[in-house]
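Lab notes, practical 5.
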Amino acid sequence: MAPGTRTCAGCGAVLAARMLLKATGKDVIVCEATGCMEVTSTQYPTTAWKVPWIHVLFENSASVATGVKAALEAQGNNHTQVIAYGGDGGMVDIGFGAVSGALERDDDIMIITYDNEAYANTGIQRSGATPFGASATTTPAGLESQGKKQWKKNIPMIAVAHGSKYVATASIGYPQDLQKKIKKAMQVKGARYLHIHAPCPIGWAFDSSMTIQVAKLAVQTGMWMLYEIDDGAFKRTMTPELKPVDEYIKLQGRFKHLKPETIKIIQERINASWKEMDNLEKCGVNLRTIL
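Output from the prediction step:
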């Protein structure tokens, strides 16, 4: 990624892209859905991408990536990595049909979501990746609404249920972990899925200097869990002594309306999820055989 993009100050998504490309090197083609990174990095006739890059629609980045990979293989090129890349709309919601198809067919591509937990490009509308309780323009906090009512969609586990050989979560707050997982995914043949947590200062309403702090706190409080599922084997790549979730929530304006009883519900959910992940890791069950 070249310097000088038009991303917002403190943008987590551009950091995710930089870390991704640092791990992949130049032998890669990126097929990116419409979204924050597309509109801020490629205003015609300029581009910040120093690798081949294709802008596609919200709904079909995974399909286009599949076609690009097939074309390369027809030319005898089996070394270039092809990445379907997108945000909440391009991967979690609007484009999930194409993602699901590529995972089910086990197409030899890497599918990566940069997750800023809203449709940030078009005005901070809620998405399937928006967390419970967060205020967005379509789930505003007020007398008749207390933010999003649904819990965050668990796309990584949905990818495992499709039979994906390698699935991992990552965070821009922990770049070594992120890049290690990218490099590992590059060695796997077939459909691979990675989900990168990328805080958004504008949508989440925190100071732009705090992006990395917020990203790290998401992991340290259990709001975002770092793990990988390699051929069905689940393993957490970081197991911090969990901090109270309030330390993460209080930094963000999108949660400022939450009452103590709601924060308690979120904390209980985290505690329960953490316990379930403990059990999952200890039992050693192969998720590809049961999901």
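Observations recorded by the TA: The CA atoms of residues 100 and 283 lie 28 Å apart. The chain has twelve helices and eight strands.
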